[in-house]
Design goal:
four-stranded antiparallel beta sheet; mainly beta; Jelly Rolls; elongated
Length: 273
């Protein structure tokens, strides 16, 4: 679907609509000044956005996909999606669906969903989380959340991400690396682990589609030491199964006294929607 912003004027409902009605009848729907009947082709869009009863407590954001210009001068809008949310992800929400009387005002609007669609922000926006302090796990194979490399996720939204980590261990014979991506129940996804370490040993890739249990991504050939960090990358996607948090988890793969593994300040994650 495509959306291009379009400037109209104030129009009016020809008849009342219920909170669940998906057909809207306007008393007229003409381009200002020229008087040309507005069509989807004129707007160069396959979906358009509007507000019913704007500037009031009962305003409602909607979208529509079809305009029929009637012989009596009225216009019928179909393919209507009611009650668009005021914030991301701008989907329909029954709590925002309202009944409206005939003669209620109707405008083509630059509501948030319209701007989101017209500018394709889903591709334009990237977000960054930087790690501002080092975090260490000592003598433990229990996965823990990274206290900084995480963010809130919304049910049904797909997130694409890349964790770029600087990691050290306190013993170059171990304790090796274990990590996971933890997300809300019902989430799906795929994550690939890769990396490089200064001693030149192989850093085999690992992959998991388990992002809720979570499945662990393990590398057992790390021979770096505390003085020279190695690089770990976790890259993939997750579709959130519920509202919650997506977090990096990490631990030692082999626990032993006097061993530890640290994710260093300067690590970061980049993600987009």
């Amino acid at each position: 679907m495509s959306t291009n912003l379009y400037g109209g004027t104030t129009y009016y409902l020809q008849s009342s609509i219920s909170s669940t009605g998906t057909t809207i009848l306007l008393s007229s729907f003409l381009e200002p000044v020229s008087g040309v009947p507005i069509t989807m082709e004129l707007m160069n869009s396959t979906v358009a956005y509007a507000t019913i009863a704007p500037f009031g407590e009962r305003s409602e954001f909607i979208s529509f996909t079809t305009i029929t210009q009637n012989d009596d001068g009225t216009a019928t809008l179909t393919g209507v999606t009611r009650g668009l949310r005021r914030g991301y992800p701008y989907t329909s929400d029954s709590s925002f669906m309202l009944a409206h009387n005939g003669n209620s005002k109707f405008i083509l609007s630059d509501q948030p969903a319209a701007l989101y669609a017209a500018t394709d922000l889903s591709q334009a926006l990237q977000f960054y989380v930087n790690k501002t302090s080092t975090q260490t796990v000592t003598n433990s194979v229990a996965l823990v959340n990274d206290t900084e490399l995480q963010w809130a996720v919304i049910s049904g939204v797909t997130y694409y991400f890349k964790f770029e980590l600087l990691v050290t261990n306190a013993n170059n014979a171990g304790p090796d690396w274990k990590s996971a991506i933890k997300t809300p129940a019902g989430s799906t996804g795929s994550v690939v682990l890769s990396g490089a370490e200064p001693a030149g040993s192989a850093f085999p890739q690992a992959v998991t589609t388990d992002v809720t249990t979570p499945g662990t991504l393990v590398n057992t050939t790390i021979v770096a030491d505390a003085d020279v960090p190695f690089n770990v990358t976790l890259q993939g996607w997750v579709t959130a199964g519920a509202n919650g948090t997506l977090a990096l988890q990490f631990a030692e793969n082999t626990a032993a006294p006097a061993t530890s593994i640290s994710v260093l300040k300067g690590s970061r994650v980049t993600y987009s929607i």
